[in-house]
Write a structure and sequence with these properties.
Elements: H1 2-11, H2 26-31, E1 39-44, H3 46-56, E2 66-71, H4 77-82, H5 89-97, E3 101-112, E4 115-119, E5 122-126, H6 127-137, H7 145-157, E6 162-167, E7 170-182, E8 204-210, H8 214-224, E9 233-238, E10 240-244, E11 249-253, E12 256-260, E13 264-277
Helix pairs in contact: 1-5, 6-7
């Protein structure tokens, strides 16, 4: 697929350097070496975009390339938020040639086993982290069926953790089925947990769902996954979010499962930090 996209861009008169990844972390390393380039295009899903984003964020801002995305993964929430065509990679590549450049927000997470990490879609705790752990085991399933199956298994098997949340200056604690901090309206290939979020809002959007019985959670999931505000569900906003739980807590960051040794992490917003090519005019 990468070769087809590169060929399409070359035929349009652009100089293209085509790089392939063979292992996790390759895309981040390649992106970190692009200072002074005009554009870096990530071809893949949200995991690939996550790696490229983290590589680009190590580049000095004045020499950082513009990020373009050609969606080619199971979950393409970042590309969808940018308005990029989702189901035709060559059409998406062509659309980038005339796409406007915009500055968008970037999320930063500190306190994980990997230190500081940047995110573009969102991060999730409790059932959201458990679902991403299950997703690694259900990858052989086709398309978005893997997301559905992993979500159901997680919902029926996980234990809701006790968490303390601090959003800017306001704090609250409890047992939560879901805590999701979103930059994009959707996560997990289309679940609209933070429907009013966006890459230019200047806010982190925080969806919290308090613990409930597994049966009730399963029955309510069609509404929860569309951002409906049922009893015990809130969607809040802030520029800084601190999450405190048990040591060894897990969090997914743009779908990547990461451990928090101390159980304490802090997410913050970097407004208008990154230039991207968007499909929306």
């Amino acid at each position: 697929m990468g070769q087809r996209v590169a060929r399409s861009l070359r035929e349009s008169g652009y100089g293209v350097r085509d790089e392939r990844t063979t292992a996790p972390g390759d895309a981040a390393k390649l992106a970190a070496e692009t200072a002074g380039w005009s554009v870096v295009v990530a071809i893949g899903g949200d995991g690939t975009v996550h790696e490229v984003l983290n590589g680009l964020m190590t580049v000095e801002r004045a020499r950082r390339p513009v990020l373009g995305v050609v969606p080619a993964g199971t979950g393409n929430d970042y590309a969808q938020t940018l308005g990029v065509p989702l189901h035709d990679p060559e059409a998406a590549a062509q659309a980038l040639l005339e796409a406007p450049v915009k500055r968008v927000d970037v999320g930063r997470l500190e306190g994980t086993e990997r230190g500081k990490i940047f995110f573009g879609v969102g991060i999730g705790f409790a059932m959201m982290a458990a679902a991403n752990a299950e997703l690694q085991r259900s990858r052989p399933l086709p398309g978005k069926l893997s997301y559905f199956v992993s979500g159901v298994i997680a919902l029926l098997t996980f234990e809701a953790p006790e968490l303390l949340l601090t959003i800017d200056e306001a704090s609250g604690s409890g047992r939560f089925m879901i805590v999701h901090i979103g930059l994009c309206p959707t996560t997990g290939g289309g679940f609209r947990l933070t429907p009013d979020a966006g890459l230019e809002t200047g806010r982190l959007h925080v969806s919290t769902v308090t613990n409930r019985s597994k049966l009730l959670g399963l029955l309510q999931w069609p509404w929860i996954s569309r951002g409906r505000l049922l009893q015990g569900i809130q969607i809040l906003q802030g520029k800084r979010v601190r999450v405190e739980g048990e040591p060894g807590l897990f969090v997914h960051v743009d779908g990547e499962l990461i451990q928090v040794p101390t159980g304490i992490v802090e997410a913050s917003l970097l407004p208008r930090e990154l230039e991207v090519l968007t499909g929306a005019t």
